[in-house]
Design brief:
alpha+beta; N-terminal domain of MutM-like DNA repair proteins; Helicase, Ruva Protein, domain 3; 2 domains; four-stranded antiparallel beta sheet; 6 helices
Amino acid sequence: MPELPEVEVVRAGLAPAVTGALVIGVTVLDDRALTRHGGGGDDFEARLTGRVITSAARRGKFLWLPLQTGVADAPASEAVVGHLGMSGQMLLRAPGAAPERHERVRIDLAHPAHGELSVVFADQRTFGSLAIDELVATPDGAPGGYGWDEASVPSQVAHIARDPLDPAFSDAVFRRTLARKDSAIKRVLLDQTVVSGVGNIYADESLWAARIHPETSARALPTRAVNRLLGEVRHVLDKALAEGGTSFDAQYVNVNGQAGYFAHSLNAYGRTGEPCPRCGRPIVRVSFTNRSSHFCAHCQRVPRPSVDGSGAARG
């Protein structure tokens, strides 16, 4: 599934092409792409055609394109919100370009500077979605996400926490949240209501860099370790962004259809049996819910149970 770096690469690619563009046509080829939309394809087409897109925004793994209200200087009240799911792609294409393989929705635009172009939503596995959704106020009064200065966010995204690269992300709140959780730290990193945008790949990479075993209880981590982990999460995400995200196959590409190359920089994820870049021992893979964790059993030691004054072990 695309994580923060992949979705941010797509957002950054869309932004100059869609900001200020008029929607001149919408074609829904598969209603399965509208599972989060309140109506069907005809409703989506009718409500979007004739609107002006004001920017391209992101929080965590969600994208949205705010829509002009038609009233001068009035803040946007609706947006096209998108989630790429497992294999969704947002592609920029010339007007009249041949249909993409697995194309589900095509949005034709007229941009005041770039002329006509199309945004194509393609999705092989059909777990992604588009919807027109209302914008609601952010509880903290800060901008809703990257690329969006207004203190609002689509209602479908309101439950998603801020990501570690968001200027409004609170390290203190994150530390307090971890101190209350007995869950394994990797499970907490994947909880999008605690911290967004971090999926399996970047959780494994960040935990490896911070030398923390993925099964360590979140509340057992001292403040110093939490701060180190947050720093590594940010470093990993920044590096992945600089390298265009992680592509293992053709399912993730940027808006021009190009793959990212962060896969060449991975230290733990997907490297089962290969030597740890730090100590040379083999990277191991263990089952984790319906996915896998990759780590170095030597560098990322299983935490020892603490012992209280009576000599009884505390897990």
